Amino acid sequence: MYARVLAGDAAYNGRFFTGVLTTGIYCLPSCKARKPRLENVRFFPSCEAARGSGLRACKKCHPDDFARGADPVLESIETLVAEIRAEPSAFPDARAIVLRSGFGPTRAFELFRQHYHASPADLLVRARLDRAKQRLLATRAGLAEIAGDAGFESLSVFHEQFRQRFGLTPGAYRELPGVTSFTVTLPPGYPLAYLRRALGRDSHSVNERLTGDDYLGAVLLSSGPALLSLKLSPATVRAEINDGSAVEAHALVVGLLGLDQAAAAFSRLAGKIGLTRLVAGRAELRISQTTSVFEGILWAIIGQQINLPFAYRLRSRLFTLTGARQENGLYAPPAPAAIARLEPSDLLPLQFSRQKADYLIATARLVADGQLDLKALRALSATRAERTLLAVRGLGPWSVNYLMMRSLGFADCVPYGDTGVTSGLKSLFKLEAKPDIDATRRLMAVFSPYRSMATNHLWQYAQPAPA
């Protein structure tokens, strides 16, 4: 138990409570307060037992709230974020957000990074851009009016931040509903070879195909299956969708390319802590997102505890069985309802284990029945999204962190226990052996609040650079 306290392991919250005799306080194992000495610690099975020994609840980690299922600090931050998203122009800068939070600057920044994996300033920019995107599509108001309504200080700032995050000018974004193709601009130094590796990692995939710089993927839009084609070049990517909304297709492309991720900020952090070698040759590396959260869930369950080539084969068999076949022979990822209709016996002949089949079908049924709202996950705090996903049978800590970084875009996740991460850390820090989970947690802490980016770089670190 003391080892779990030193590790700050949130997985043990509620399983026991830590009493510190010298301060008279009891805490959760994950409490961020200074770690007590072992001789000053007692462990309790409940808050009641700790109070019975004369201790009082910590005001930093709020163990009583956790024990009864409440989290007032998280709820206050979530309420504030909802206000920012509803009316971003009401907050002129990050200081206004901190003042509204009621916490001091250091504590406020800590809470935003813990629960949203973002600073107040970054959340404000995202809220302003989201408001602007909504108005661009819903009105014919002038760009200056839209920029002011969203809270941007000038039209030039609005234009530049919009283009950096989405690869399009605001004017070009406004025209998406009437087109079937568009061109996004890549950031300077974008490592196209690594994108090719990500898009073409399964050479036998039944839902996507990469030939040189031409990518073709079968995707599932809100209107149904469609084909997304990309023409890759060092400065731009030309995209075309054969059916459905170009607005949806643009969102998929932004995710596949990772355009709205803070690659430059992570590279600066790596340099600041003396680990420039981690990002050498790929400072602008991004995390290619899955085309949907449900596709990410399927992959996370399929890929558990089996080797990569076999996982690819299982995914192809599932897509062929349940996905919509396109005219070129590719299969779109299946809708949740298509898998929900199956029974485990349908997947056993495809070499799925009974347990894996059970997990896939049960999760698909949760989504199809509306009990697991995947669309709503994107708007939740990272803390709330993690708790929601961990409650799904078949999704453990590795799967949930993988989903959060590759399907939901959260910036500070680590799939602990991942062999690619531990192999990368071993090489990066020249360790004699791969680190265990506690050592991984300590080593990865230096990369916060960009541990998702660090994970992606570590996956590449021990591999040869792509041609």
Tell me the layout of helices and strands:
Blueprint: H1 2-7, E1 17-20, E2 25-27, E3 41-44, H2 47-52, E4 56-57, H3 63-67, H4 72-86, H5 94-101, H6 105-116, H7 120-138, H8 143-150, H9 155-166, H10 170-174, E5 181-185, H11 192-199, E6 208-211, E7 214-221, E8 224-232, E9 236-241, H12 246-257, H13 263-272, H14 293-302, H15 308-322, H16 336-340, H17 344-347, H18 354-368, H19 374-377, H20 382-390, H21 397-406, H22 419-428, H23 437-444, H24 451-461
Parallel strand pairs: 2-4
Antiparallel strand pairs: 1-2, 1-3, 5-9, 6-7, 7-8, 8-9
Mean pLDDT: 95
The major β-sheet equals:
5 strands, antiparallel
What gyration radius follows from the Cα positions, in whole Å? 23 Å
Terminal CA distance: 48 Å
pLDDT < 50 stretches = none
What's the total number of strands? 9
Query: How would the global form be characterised?
Result: globular
Remind me, CATH topology of one domain? Arc Repressor Mutant, subunit A
Q: Considering DSSP H and I runs of 4 or more, what fraction of the residues is helical? A: 40-55%
User: Class of one domain in CATH?
Assistant: Mainly Alpha
Number of helices: 24
Strand content: 5-15%
Going across the biggest sheet, name each strand in turn. Answer: 5-9-8-7-6
The fourth-level CATH homologous superfamily of one domain is: Homeodomain-like
Structural class: alpha+beta
